[in-house]
Amino acid sequence: MYGGGNIFENVPVDLESEDQEKLAAFEARINRGEKIEPMDWMPGLYRKQLIRMIEQHAHSEIIGALPEGTWITRAPGFKRKLSLMAKVQDEVGHAQLLYSAAETLGKPREAMINDLITGKSKYSNIFNYPAFTWADATIISWIVDAGAIVNQLANLKGSYGPYCRALDRICAEESFHLKYGHHAVIHLATGSPLQRKMVQEALNRWWPPMMHFFGPPDKASVHSEILMRWKVKMASNDENRQQFLDMYVPKIWELGLTVPDPNLNKNNESGQWEYTEPDWEEFKRVINGDGPCNAERLAVRRFAEERGAWMRKAILKKETEYVMPLA
Ligand code: BYC
Question: Within the chain, how many helices (H) and strands (E) appear?
Answer without folding.
Answer: 12, 2
